Please model this.
Amino acid sequence: LKTHIEPLAIAVNVSQRSNTHCDQVLLLLGKLYCTYISLRITDNSFSFAGDEDESHPATSIINSIEKRWERTDQDLFIIALFLNPL
Model:
């Protein structure tokens, strides 16, 4: 349970800071996406299910991240990442 909720708690804390920038939000979304994809693959390797298991709890989080990314102004986030590198 901790491995499923901890990334979301960290994301909430980082994104609610008063000095959070667009590039940080983009990196945060990418990190969440990679975390939950790997979590789903790891969990499914033990249950012998496919990588696209719709019943896995991480699948709804992954779908939500993908939906939000499609609705955002992607150019703004990508430009912010290039203009404000780590």
